[in-house]
Amino acid sequence: MRARGGAAAVRPEHLAAHARLVKSADADAFLVTSVMRAYLRASLPLQALLVLRGLLTRAPRLLANSFSLSLALQACAASAAAIPLRAATATPPLGASLHARALKSGFAAADIFVRTALVEMYAKAGRAELARAAFDEAPRRDVFLCNVMLAAYVSRGEVAEARTVFDGMRDRDLVSWNTMIHGYAVSGDVGMAREIFDGTADRDAFSWSSMISAYAKGRRSKEALELWREMRVAGVAPDCITMVSVLSACSDMGALAIGAEVHQFVERNRVEVDVKLGTALVDMYAKCGDIDNSLKVFRAMPVKDVLTWSSTIIGLANHGLGHDALSLFSEMISQGLQPNEITFIGVLIACTHVGLVSDGKKYFSSMSDIHGVAPRIEHYGCMVDLLGRAGHVEEAMELIRSMPFEPDAVIWRALLGACRIHKNVEIAEEAMARLRVLDPLADGHYVLLSNIYAQANSWEGVAEMRKTIRRENIQRVPGRSSIEWENTVHEFVSGDRSHPRFGEIYKMLEEMMDRLKQAGYRPMTSLVLQDIDEEAKKQALAEHSEKLAIAFGLLTTPARSTLRITKNLRACEDCHSAIKLISLVYDRKLVVRDRNRFHHFSEGQCSCKDYW
DNA sequence: ATAGGGTTAG
Asked: Out of the domains of life, which is the source (predicted)?
C-alpha cells in the first residue's frame, strides 16, 4: 500500500543520484524522474524543485520527455502547495515556463500524464481558472484527469462546479465518487453526500470514512455510528482514518462502550496506532467520562504531538482535575514542546474549574510573554469565566472593558453565568442587554437571567423573562440526556414517553423521587419557567431528561455499577442536587457530562464542589 | 508514474 502523509524516507542512492545530477549534464532522464519522485514521496518538494532548477539551466534536454516533464510539473505543484502563494504572485514562474515547454514540445497535447500534472499544478497554486483552461483544452480526458479537476474544485469548496464536472464524466471510478462524497461533506451538505454515497457501487474504506466523518462533522453522530455498524456488516476493513472518524462520533455522544469496542478492534487487528488515532482515543475516553483510560492511552503513546497534549490537558481540566492538567502542561513544556492556542484554552479551563485565579492570570500573561502565543478572544472568554466564577465579577467586567477585542456573545454569556453563581442582578442585566443584541434567539440566557431573578426573589423579573420568551418567540432547546446500554445509546428528552420501556422507567422514576424526598430532597420549582401550578412544576422537574436517563440506568444495570450520562445543556441545579442524593441513596457512582464539564458524583458529593 | 477519507476549544 502506498504511504500517505507519513512520508517515505529518501534513500541514499537517490541522494547519490542527486549529486550526480548536480555535477554532470550527462545524467539520464531516468535518473531525473527517480530522484524527483523520491523527494516528492518524502514530502520534500523544495528539494525536488532544486533538482528541477538545475535541469532548467544546465540540462534542459533531460526534460524533453513526458515522464520528466510530468514529474517536474508535480514538483511545482507540490511546492506551490507547500508555500501558499498569494493570488497576485500565484502564477508559478517555473511552472509557467514548464507549461510553455510542454506546449512547444507537443507533450501537453499528446501525453495525458503531462496534461494531468499541468491541471494539478495550477490547482495547487490556487489558479483555478488556469487549471480549468488546461482541463478544457485537453484533447482527450480520462477518468484520472477528471478526478484531478474534481479534487481541485472540492479543495476550493466549489462543490457545485465539481458536480458539473462529475455529471459530465463518461466514466467514473471509485475515486470520482469518493471525491464527491467528501466534497459535499466539507461543504456541510450531508444529504447530498449521502445521495452520492448511496449511488456508489463497491464502496471502500474511503467511501465509508468520508460518509462517517460527514455525519460526525454535522453532529449527526448517531447516524455516524449506525454507518460504522453497517460498514462492518458489509465486510469492508476499516483503517486508522475510519476509526478516527468513528471515535469522534463516540466522543460527541459519550458512547463509551462503542468507543471501547473500537479500541479493542484496533488492538485485536493490530491496527497501527498513529498519533492521530492515539489522540482520538485519548479524546474519546476523556469525553466519554473515562479519564483513567484516557490517561492510560496517553502514557502508552510513543509519539505525541501538540494536539495529543492539548486534548489530554483539556480532558483533565473538564474532569475537574485542574492540578493534574497543569502538571501535564509543565511536563509538556519541560520536554521542549511548543503549546498552541488550544493548549492554553485547556490550561485556563483547568484553572477555572479549580478556582485558581492567580495561577490563571499568571498563565494568561505567560502566553505572549513566554510562549509567543497571542491571546485571542477565546482566551479572554476563559479569563472572564475564571474571574467571574471565582466571584470577581467586577474585575471580569473590567477585563471586558479593557480587552483589545469587541466582546462577543460568548464573553457576555460567561459573565451572565458568573452572575448566577454570585447572585449579581445588576451586572446580569447589563450582560443580558448586550446578549439581546448579539444573540437574541438563544434561549439559554433568558433561562439564566430568570434563574438569577428567582434566586433574588424577584418574581416580577421571572414573570418578565417568561413574557419575553413568549413575545420574542424564543425556541427552547430541549434538554437531552443519553445513557449507553448494550452498546446502544438511549436518549431521553424531558417528559419523554417514547422509549419502549417507558412504563418501567416511570415506575422507577416515581420510586426514585420518593426515596429522594425521604432523604431530604426539595424540588426547586422556582427554576421552572412554564406558567403552571406548583404540582405540575414538581412533575416537570422530576421528568427532566437526566433523571429519566438515570432511572433507565438504575433499571438496567447491576447494583453499584457506575452510571454515565451525557447531557446537551448545562447541568440543571435541581438535577445536580438530586443526583448527589442518588449517589448516596443508591450507592452508585455517576459520571455526568454537561455542556461544559464533567461531574463525578459519589457518596452524596460532586467533584465540582457545586462550582460550575 | 498521476486522484479520494482523519484529531484538540468556552
From this structure: Eukaryota
